[in-house]
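hey
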């Protein structure tokens, strides 16, 4: 164990674990491509792209060069009253890439904060229009939108991680996705009865990520758009996980043909280099804030919003996406996931195997021993971190065929397929 880990371990509070009983973390020395190199010299193929961020792989030279050049110019300036080229160029590019009139970009640092901002936008949208009482949100079972206080209220209260905080914040309407006529009718009835108190519906399009990698068809999104319009509500897409190629389209909203009123982005926005997020509103939403009345402004401003280094990284990442080569890589990875994971369907305890784009999932009937499985995967040269009932892969798009074979082979070996 390196000295820095020994010295720092008593002082670092790690995420998502019971500090008293959790095994020690693996010490990382450096990264390269789709690999994490440990201090002890082992190389692990990263099967989850560092929580879905490193879409182009680690240490991509184009992104690194852009960050280094920006570091020499200006690492950070406040965004209140000042402007800089990386942020304004990035906002213009995102507006051009997103469908419809999603063209007003509000920057933040993390995905949870971007979702909070989208909720605040939706609430104030109605206030600015002189409509009182619209203080609630509709979200969906199986969903996850972050760990901050407001986002916890729209996560699945049963499958999520925030049951301890029940009652701390106002309860929201967390209901079943409208996957069939019965669930659509139930949601329609809820909106008819409670629409006067609801500001917006919020959903993770195509894949509910941290809630269990649950897939749904684009027809579900079309139903949500139709019901939101019928009852005069806003629709928010949380694309923190699904954005930037993960489902096979650059954005799920683009591929689905369903345009929300607000979309949130983060994770792969900077290619896994620096923290950055955005809540991007439609023209309709933005115009509710456009006023001679200073009180109608959105009073929000994260200290490091639109950080120039992060925006430079995001612009460089968009350069790579605009080259188009990622599409072939996602298709290749999708095929490797389908072929490599399908044999797990008959393994003990497995209830489903599913893939979409560069996402592969093996679901069990019961919650898995994430820590124990992590250790076994590391012994096989892979970094795979299960959650809840699923063992899943969301690898960098640059992962080679041989590395994909190692990842899927490790899962087959560990689950007994």
């Amino acid at each position: 164990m390196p000295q820095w880990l020994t010295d720092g371990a008593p002082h670092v509070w790690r995420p998502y674990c019971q500090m008293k009983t959790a095994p020690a973390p693996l010490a990382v020395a450096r990264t390269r491509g789709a690999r994490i190199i440990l201090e002890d010299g082992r190389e692990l193929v990263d099967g989850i792209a560092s929580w879905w961020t490193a879409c182009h792989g680690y240490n991509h030279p184009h992104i690194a060069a852009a960050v280094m050049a920006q570091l020499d110019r200006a690492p950070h300036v406040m965004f209140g009253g000042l402007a800089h080229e990386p942020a304004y160029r990035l906002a213009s590019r995102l507006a051009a890439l997103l469908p419809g009139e999603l063209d007003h970009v509000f920057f933040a640092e993390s995905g949870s904060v971007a979702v909070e901002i989208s909720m605040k936008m939706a609430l104030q949208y109605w206030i600015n229009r002189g409509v009182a009482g619209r203080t609630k949100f509709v979200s969906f079972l199986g969903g996850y939108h972050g760990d901050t206080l407001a986002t916890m209220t729209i996560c699945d209260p049963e499958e999520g991680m925030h049951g301890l905080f029940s009652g701390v914040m106002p309860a929201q309407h967390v209901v079943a996705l409208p996957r069939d006529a019965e669930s659509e009718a139930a949601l329609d009835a809820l909106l008819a009865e409670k629409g006067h108190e609801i500001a917006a519906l919020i959903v993770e399009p195509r894949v509910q990520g941290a809630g269990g990698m649950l897939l749904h068809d684009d027809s579900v999104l079309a139903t949500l758009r139709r019901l939101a319009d019928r009852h005069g509500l806003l629709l928010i897409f949380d694309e923190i996980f699904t954005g930037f190629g993960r489902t096979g389209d650059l954005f799920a909203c683009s591929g689905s043909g369903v345009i929300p009123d607000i979309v949130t982005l983060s994770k792969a926005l900077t290619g896994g280099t620096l923290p950055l997020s955005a809540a991007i509103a439609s023209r309709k939403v933005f115009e509710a804030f456009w006023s001679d009345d200073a009180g109608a402004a959105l009073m929000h401003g994260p200290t490091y919003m639109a950080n120039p280094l992060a925006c430079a990284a995001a612009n460089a990442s968009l350069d790579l996406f605009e080259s188009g080569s990622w599409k072939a890589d996602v298709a290749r990875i999708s095929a490797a996931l389908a072929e490599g994971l399908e044999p797990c369907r008959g393994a003990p305890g497995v209830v489903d195997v599913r893939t979409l784009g560069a996402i592969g999932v093996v679901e069990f009937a019961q919650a898995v021993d994430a820590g124990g499985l992590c250790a076994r995967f590391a012994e096989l040269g892979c970094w795979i971190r299960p959650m809840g009932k699923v063992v899943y892969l969301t690898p960098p798009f640059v992962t080679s065929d041989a590395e994909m074979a190692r990842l899927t082979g490790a899962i087959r070996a560990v689950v007994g397929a």
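The longest strand covers residues 102-108. Residues 111-128 form the longest helix (18 residues).
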